[in-house]
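Give me structure tokens for this 191-residue protein.
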Amino acid sequence: KAKELPANMCTGPKWDAARAKEIASFARYAVYTVVWALPELVRAIPTRWVYTLKDNGDRKARLTVRGDLETKRRFTDGLPDIQADSPTATRYSLRIFLAIAAQLQFDVVSADVPTAFLQQDESHAKLRDPIYLKPPPGEGEGVWWKTHKIVYGLKDAPRAWWKTFNIWMVGIGFKSLPEDPCVYVIRHSNS
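Here you go.
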């Protein structure tokens, strides 16, 4: 189990490396561009670090935005304002899945998608109006980040990631169940 730590406890080379890794992920997924001035009447949303110490001793630094300070906006697909609802699997679905897997003696594995929210497909969560962020200390003084994607901390980040995941699953042949959109099935012609 991971443990979240206060910022004043997260100093030193290992934490510096964790922060550098997170900033590199923002660059790898083209999350933002640097701008030297904010548009008129625009407020930048502050960022903050969330530090986690894993059971195995690994350190994780997640750069998030202060989503509580975010204003209403619209997506290019015409959906109104912020859509913060995101499907999650029900406990009943999980129990049924585990029972079937046990009965059929299937191996059950779980997976983690590192930097999942940064990987959402821009075409399905593209912002009509960009969001401007105040970068964390040490990442540029007197500059702002103009985001191209929904990032950690924004209210609709989980939904944007789910939409990307759903499109990928459907694209490889799975179908989600109407009763639980987080349960996917695939049928093969020989079964």
